[in-house]
Design brief:
The structure is a homotetramer of 424-residue chains. Chain A is built from 15 helices and eleven strands. Chain A has 424 residues and is an alpha/beta fold. In chain A, β1, α1 and β2 form a beta-alpha-beta unit. Chains A and B meet through α1, α9, β10, α13 and α14 of A and α1, α8, β10, α12 and α13 of B.
């Protein structure tokens, strides 16, 4: 039985001062003012028939290594054009980040001073939970979800004993075990208190046995890992097409240049390894065979700022073994692609909670590079993922509305209401 | 009730000496010898579960403006590498084209001397039908399909009285009405005698009211129009992906350079208009709105020969109205992409006939730029088309096997049998 | 003997309200305020050693089909960012265009209401000359040059009697001969009164026998034709490199998409033919042989505005006849590339006049797609042109300073003086 | 006083079985047979006026880690098309490599069994010199040059005492000092006996103080380092063009994919560092300022074999600080570009020896990524290098023939003589 739809939802984000979160927050304010349309929001087409909280009801808060308010932070990222940002500067400026959980061992190249000074991981958890409790008190019970948008951490030691069971993990928290990463601290804190948890980063958190156990125990929906925005999005569109036409992929060379904080984090080899990990397996899974030469490169290239660029070269073999090449050059904007996905993930996690679903919500795989599953192999092919999402979304009215086609666009839910009270 | 599967099928092609037909014919011979794999054949994955005639059972014959045997013709196109061509030169050399139906008013830039000298369209029909009867006598009753692979004709006068009904059309044949194009002569001849008819060219034929009437009357399956090989294939893969992510397409600039006989035909403005016609509407249909600036250009560029190249630039708008660009550069091989589709279309038309289906087989829309339908709007989105094709193909064993996934690959049906006797 | 250097120079431009002229005018004002550097100004490196008028001494006026002042016009073109434009809006807003000479027969797609209503070409000449006299009175004698930046006209009838001699041309003016284009009216008016005349458009004017005769008679320097900004600039850089490495160019396919007023003018086939004419011969001249397949396409593509994009594909043959490809994708900004060249051409024409040079100044060929010469074949190779320009520029101090190297950068001449009085 | 021109010249290459040397050798044989033209040979245009040995007089021999004869080796590289290779297989097959000097410490990923088993570097030198003496005996005195085409070694310890003077180096040879790399062994052996030495690899050899001293003492011409074939060639063409137009380079991202033996060597990080070293400084030197973000990447990508591909993205700033991008995609063939340069370097080194020139021949800088100089800064700008080469080449007849233009093409020197006797 579906719980009733609220008119509002709080999104507590790890990295709320980053380019993605500030863009999402600014975008929601602009939608609220009726100053921007719904371009780029994938679920805008199903408005009114999907049971999701309206866009204008969303509200952002969260943690950041930098203490600047969201208006100041947004200005530094140069993603939202200045004149638009000024229209919502007051609303954004009223939100200040909570001190972040940090550990330089996990992410070397992005640091800050606005951090928790707690002595142990256990105390950090408590602090995060008190932040969440305060936010929930403002938004209303059951009206908060947590989304991780932090910089990429190095890959943790997946065999560390502390990660293998909930009991061991909780002991690790008490003993301040370094095997527990900041991402895990946040994930534990959220799930333990029943907040749905979405992971837009490559950081390993909800996937460890200890936290799978916890999510199951608490009946909390989760989703992740690593938002599928630019290059991997196109890869999961194109690879199934090559397969459908029996064009055999001999090699796929992918390179990325980007100059924002995400790129800076990835210029550390530990973080880069995490990122490449979630990009790597996608291709073989979709094609059904091992591609001999799949190379993925990411370079920190400051001249571009947030304007990420991907260049892919694909060598395929067709009839009679003849060779062909496809080259794709995507001049995209990292945060512009990511922010609306974050918004949709939050809305869907809220829906899942109201439906009483728990554990990894596989229907959200379309939003992730390395989709979490309840056990089976993940689906990577984009259009198969989209079908699954549409079926899941329409589950309540499935019998009479489902078709293969995306639903026709409906009127947007733009409400010119005054902005909600700021989060402190 | 499905008619029994034959081990062989004759494919009578208009333009049998062209790059596509000779590549298909050479490929089938190489498959028969076990000298090439099944790369590029989209339905190789469903082998043994689909009711289609095996690849090694196919045999090519047909008409051409040039009288050279298929081995000589194949050599001039330089599509199949020389050393491979020589392995099958004897088999190909045994097949000589039948004289073609030609009318310079319909296609200026590609001409030849190997043409029917009949005085009237009625006599041309008779000649084509006698060619088909001879071929069927060799292959066996119900074992021949017709595929049009001829050069692009100019757009006919769709309002000409002779095209509006079967009775008027037959009068037009008798009166040698110039409104009846060569493509229509072939289509009439085939359908009237019950041969399934597939149209891989942009030429208008089975779509005219007169021939729709005829196909219905005779219960003959048809398919068309204009094979979807390179640029449009990728366009129908990408556009639905942009829609799914709510990235609004502001402009799509597509240019092509190619240097083969097809390119030469298109350097005539009349023929070019036909081709652009089938390329043009695709985009708006898939996106659900009118793209302000959709430009398609095709240039005859001889240095490339059969190695066609497409360059697309796509301007999209995402969240907050921010602009991004995607550029796709496809270095493809025209005949290498087209030949296996021709093979699959022929096999599917044969299956449709054995199933007793008549009129446009919409399940084959994945193979065409401008899919024929029984009346409704055509589906252009590639993955939706693929699902439809898979469901249609698996109709006999649908209940237990259908899933969203393409079936797992099976063993190829390569038979190292001696080649069949040549067609004279 | 060189005439003394003035501190100021007036540039009377045909099309002063267009994207190029308004960008140049805004840029000069920003330089005057010290708010922008000298990026993009090719001769900034020779400052102080070249005898050219300082950038801060330039002032723009001219004719336009649209009567809007330069600030309003600049806003519509969206080339200069808004916040920068506002810093100089007052200075620009004080300049209003003079009514333009127009003839729809010569340029169909760009029209306006702010036109001379004179009855004859003779009267138009008089009107233009009175505009120039007024401007010269403000700037000082010998301190005005004329630059044509108008939209592309169709190719005139080069064999028309009126163009063949000065006497015939002057008769044609009296008889209002339609063979005399608007571009010729401006060129005649300028040269007849001794104003140096530069032609940044593909329009034929100073090249006709009548005006060559006039320039010689009056001792006036001229320069043209068609500014070499984006694609052709790179073509004249790359082609000599391929020649130096003996890489034989088999084909060169060039396509352009642009969405500004220039692009709109070119969507008329007559104007397009003019443009393609100046782009066409360049390649063969540089390579020393005829390139079999040199294709140039230009498409009006509004989504881009002033952000022109060029895509070139070059097929070359190297050692042992092996094929290679070079593809160049230039995402440029039309007016940003053109404006500084216009500024340099004006400064150089002024220098030429002070040196007493007359007729086509070949040393300026580096700035043009179809360089005018005094009779011989034009030089197209970019680095050869650059050497010639540097030698010409340094002629006064040649003996001791000339080397193969461009001179070392010197301090810019930015002067934070108040803007000059506006032009009315 | 110029020594007389011989009709023949022996080229002893380090790595004679590699793709570059076998392509060069096959090409010379095909030229001798009149079966190929002179495409790709940069100095073919100056034939007959330049004092260089004719192409048909060249003959290849040398050392390799693999003992296969040149015909067998050429077949494995798949650079020269099979049918052409068979025409010259007998001539190539008669040449077998001499055992190579090898040290796995210097090049990990390319190894072989056909190596010298000498116990010390001194003995290796003696062996190389006896190989050279045997070859010279066949070709004639003063008719042999040495060219290094070996795989990329790691960067040596440039501060090692053994490299600092000739005396120390010779002691190091006696003591088998590991600071002396294989490339240095070859260079010492050649120069010490008076053979001109060209270095087409990034390996450090003739640049060390010890060998500079030796070359001066023996009066031997040298040239190097690292052949300028694809990406760097275009970089040195484009960067000076950006400078000439005052387009400021903010970032230049260069990536390469290649699948041949050279690529394999570079997949070792030590070798890669050497290669990137010679690619790195070029840009800043040409532009006259430090480019903040110049990134060069090289990936071993086997699907391509010898068909190297480079993709460059260049961010430039123009007038008013506006940003533009240039992207260059070069689908080249590594050995096809390199082989003719090797041929020209050998011919020029022979000319330098006959002219009595010694030490680094700076006029050959156009052929190298990191040109050796007699002391000053190297010139990287391609067209400046070309002018220097043309002046040097025409030095004998300079007074009357020199112009800025490359000389007009003359008749090729193809001689259909029988091939010279093979080298054993």
């Amino acid at each position: 039985m579906l719980k009733p739809l609220h008119e509002s939802l709080g999104i507590a984000t790890v990295g709320v001062g980053g380019g993605v979160a500030t863009t999402a927050a600014a975008g929601i304010e602009l939608i609220r003012l009726g100053e921007t349309g719904l371009d780029g929001l994938p679920l805008a087409e199903t408005l009114g028939r999907d049971g999701l909280v309206p866009y204008a009801g969303l509200r952002f808060a969260g943690w950041d290594l930098d203490g600047a308010d969201l208006a100041s932070a947004a200005r530094t990222h140069r993603v939202v054009p200045d004149e638009r940002l000024e229209r919502v500067a007051e609303a954004l400026g009223a939100t200040e980040p909570w001190p972040a959980v940090a550990d330089a061992e996990y992410c070397r190249n992005v640091t800050g001073e606005h951090i928790q000074r707690e002595n142990s991981r256990r105390a950090m958890v408590a602090r995060v939970q008190s932040d969440l409790a305060r936010f929930e008190a403002e938004m209303g019970a059951g009206r908060v979800v947590v989304i991780n948008l932090a910089s990429t951490e190095r890959v943790p030691d997946m065999d560390a004993p502390a990660l293998q069971s909930l009991a061991a993990f909780e002991r690790g928290l008490d003993e301040n075990d370094p095997a527990i990463s900041p991402a895990m601290v946040y994930a534990y804190a959220a799930i333990e208190r029943g907040f749905p948890y979405g992971n837009f980063t490559p950081n390993v958190a909800a996937e460890i046995p200890a936290l799978i156990e916890l999510a199951k125990e608490r009946g909390v929906p989760t989703a992740g890992r690593d938002g599928k925005t630019g290059q991997t999005f196109l890869k999961t569109v194109l690879a199934p097409a090559f397969r459908a036409r029996a064009l055999r992929v001999e090699g796929w060379y992918s390179t990325n240049i980007l100059g924002n904080r995400d790129g800076q984090a990835l210029s550390d080899s530990g973080s880069l390894a995490s990122k490449l990990g979630t990009k790597g397996d996608v291709l073989d899974d979709m094609l059904g065979y091992k591609v001999g030469d799949h190379i993925v490169q990411i370079s920190y290239y400051p001249p571009r700022g947030d304007e990420k660029e991907a260049w892919d070269n694909i060598d395929v073999t067709g009839f009679l073994g003849q060779r062909m090449q496809v080259k794709v050059n995507f001049l995209c904007r990292d945060s512009i692609l990511a922010a609306p996905l974050v918004i949709e993930i939050a809305r869907c996690l809220d829906l899942a909670r109201r439906r009483g679903e728990a554990g990894p919500i596989e229907a959200l795989s379309t939003f992730f590079k390395a989709p979490m599953t309840a056990g089976g192999a993940p689906e990577h092919a984009f259009f198969t993922q989209q079908r699954t999402l549409m079926r899941w979304l329409m589950a309540e009215n499935l019998d009479h509305v489902l078709s293969d086609e995306p639903a026709a666009p409906a009127k947007p839910d733009v409400v010119s209401a005054a902005p909600l009270a700021p989060v402190k």
